[in-house]
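Our collaborator T.R. sent over the components below with a one-line note: 'Predict the complex.' Nothing else. No constraints on interfaces, no templates requested, no preferences about which chain binds where. So this is a plain run: every listed entity goes in together, and whatever single assembly comes back becomes the starting point for the next discussion.
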Amino acid sequence: EVQLVESGGGLVKPGGSLRLSCAASGFTFNSYSMSWVRQAPGKGLEWVSSISLLSNYIYYADSVKGRFTISRDNAKNSLYLQMNSLRAEDTAVYYCARDPRGYDFDYWGQGTLVTVSS
Amino acid sequence: ELVLTQSPATLSLSPGERATLSCRASQGVSNYLAWYQQKPGQAPRLLIYDASNRATGIPARFSGSGSGTDFTLTISSLEPEDFAIYYCQQRSNYRFGQGTKLEIK
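Returned assembly:
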């Protein structure tokens, strides 16, 4: 059974940093691109970042470029999102998702809430 | 930049009725379009990928069609569990549409 479990969310002050993790199991992690998608309270879905199998292709939404860094450790079956210079508008539930075809997401974690507030 | 526009914003129907949801792209996306269902407090679930392919475990009452700029998600006969928010998403810049809320009439 495919499982994606996010962790690392919490309350952080504007300008602060947070690192999210996603532990993957039930599939061959190093065979799939992975992504982060977020959802602000009461809002729609926003793609954040994607990383290819070997980390040689990395993409970011304009809203987070230069502040967020996606990475993965295939030996640990884990995906990460380092978030720096956080803003109030980054407040959202962050989901990690498996990317089987280069754009769509067939499995999602349960999400982790990030709240940026003073 | 490529934008997806979903319509209607809200669709009010009764169980057993047919639902037709639209997603229009501002530029052609070939057939690289996916549809998701999201219920309150849950992660999204992939329904359709590449415009018309049902994802694993998705009931046959869900179908997708279209190519280029105009796409449709059809639910042939609504079940109570189908009332949710539906999003489309494309490959060019991974962006999602703003969603269509399917509510019980």
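Summary for T.R.: Residues 51 and 57 of chain A are 6 Å apart (CA to CA).
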